[in-house]
Amino acid sequence: MREHIIRQLDEDGYLHLPSVLPPSDLARIRRAIGPERCDYGVVHPFIRRNILDEVDRHLGWQTQYTKYRASDNNNSVDAGAIHRDLVYHSPTSEHAPVFTVLMYFDHAVVQLYPGSHHRTHMGYIEAVAAYSEHLDLRMSPGDILVFSASILHRGVFTAQVGEGAHRRVVQIFDVFPSRESMARHGPRLAHMPASASNTSSLGSFAKFVSHSPVLAPIASWLGYLHASTGYGYAPPAVDEDTMLSSEGFALRLDLQEALAAPYHQTNRYVLHPLNHLPCTDLDPAVIDRVSMYRYTAPYTVHGTVLALLVFLILYALYSLIKRKS
Q1: pTM of the prediction?
Q2: Which residues are within 8 A (CB) of 282 and not within 5 positions of it... i.e. 6 or more apart?
Q3: Which domains does the chain have, with CATH numbers?
Q4: What's the mean per-residue pLDDT of the chain?
Q5: Is residue 36 scored above 70 in pLDDT?
Q6: How far apart are CA 25 and CA 17, in angstroms?
Q7: Torsion angle defined by CA atoms of residues 60, 62, 66 and 70, in that order, rounded to the nearest 10 degrees
Q8: What string of DSSP letters covers 101-159?
């Protein structure tokens, strides 16, 4: 049974574990996570005891992780467009067993592209042909979702499921199956922390777009084209074998600070104290260059091409109507 589950996870890139959390624990964690504030004194021990230990039991792992965040319908600033949590800097990079683990405490929809973790740098023709090959997975309160950190996915924030506006979730990033696996591949992992300026200026706009029924599909398409083809260009300032773990527009919260007081801001990355385990931030001197090569420039190009195609289609329709009249 376990071998079948692990094989499915390797082939499809995801594993859905339904109804893992008992109702009593569900009620407690729901009280701890709100749209603005989170009780990390409840959430932090919950991650190991109620989520990762359950994953270990199903898969026979001894999980290690680098960071997590808790949110309530406010992580759409970087989760609403199709993306990969882990970016291989080069098409020739060795793929590593790195996963993301989510637990939902409300009804939600996650869109996944099964098998896309094996195709991290598609060509444009291949990417366009595969655009419709997604799965909309409905998550229920207490469900766990494990998926390859390099799989194409997004949260569907325009879907109305369940009651109310809550979408409480804990996301655990850079999850390795064992300490040995992390020790081997961890030195290749580089975090890309968000800047306060980008969070305030671009984050609000990204959140607005992800909740818009009109703009969200456009952003999803651009995100898909961007992520499926390998995130633009690989600047030479970064080692070829590096794995990038971007933190989008969400800022960080120090773990000791989070545990010292009852409540802090939700949707913050909390880094797990790894002690001797080797995972570091990308060199600050090259973060701006990487962001330009991998995010700003490609999005500008893809957006321009999309706008040009729309213009040409509208112009062709206008010409056709004018000719008939």
Answers
A1: 0.87
A2: 190, 191, 192, 238, 242, 244, 290
A3: 2-324 (2.60.120)
A4: 84
A5: yes
A6: 16
A7: 60
A8: EEEESS-EEEEE-TTGGG-SS--HHHHHHTTT--EEEEE-TT-EEEEETTS-EEE-TT-
